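If you are new to this repository, start here. Below is one unmodified record pulled from the training split, so you can see the exact layout before writing a loader.
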Amino acid sequence: MNSSSSIQNNQGVIYCATGEAFIKETLISVDSLKQKSPQLPITLFTDQAEFTHPLIDEVVWIENPTNSFLDRFKAFAQSPYQKTLYLDSDTLILQPLDELFVLLDRAELAAAHAPLRVSHNTQLTHEEIPCSFSQFNCGVLAYKKSPQMTKLFEDWQQRFIHHRSLDCDSCDQPSFREALWFSKFLYHVLPPEYNFRLLFYTLKGIRSKISIVHSHIFSQMSEADIESFKDLLDERASLVWDPYRENITTNQYTSKKWR
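And here is the target side for that same chain:
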């Protein structure tokens, strides 16, 4: 494990990015995070052993990366923080995130439901788990360090490997659903404002502010387009995001076009 600094913090943010493209994407997210929560330390887990960046407090080298979801399990297990917020590289931060760590005083883990509530592949759905227990999207995950949490991650990893043996295209959500169901964790379901997916029709709470947007589109946008997008998704944009028309419905029930 190589690090650019020694970090002794109760709470912080981790990213996991292997390959130059994902590191570039991560830096967009990091920049947006530091604008809103500049005091939060950031640790990056990466295959680039010599990588450094002024906005990143610690770099941890992933030896023998798989360039798959499996690399994230290493990051989850090795987080230097007692309270960790994991963010996917394709997230954009629009509001301060400090309050997510307050949740971890009441719950051990927090995540938002996935738009696909249950996998369509019956091989990946455990017969004991009811359909009413939805999948979680794992791109925004807050958790508190403990031996029990370590066991959860280990169980999740083994279930993920098993799912991949059944379906090589399986993502990490069905296996996380299983691991969480068979655990005894007290968890909190985050509202969509904390994992706002642009790939799908997404409902946003009235007068609520979007804190985290989740989409690969930001790596393809200019800085000016990103700023324009931030202005669009404010508290006035209260109803529905249309991913096909790139429209958002406002309080006045009018559809506002972006770009």
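Two things worth knowing about this chain: The first strand starts at residue 11 and ends at 17. The domain at 11-192 is CATH 3.90.550.10 (Spore Coat Polysaccharide Biosynthesis Protein SpsA; Chain A).
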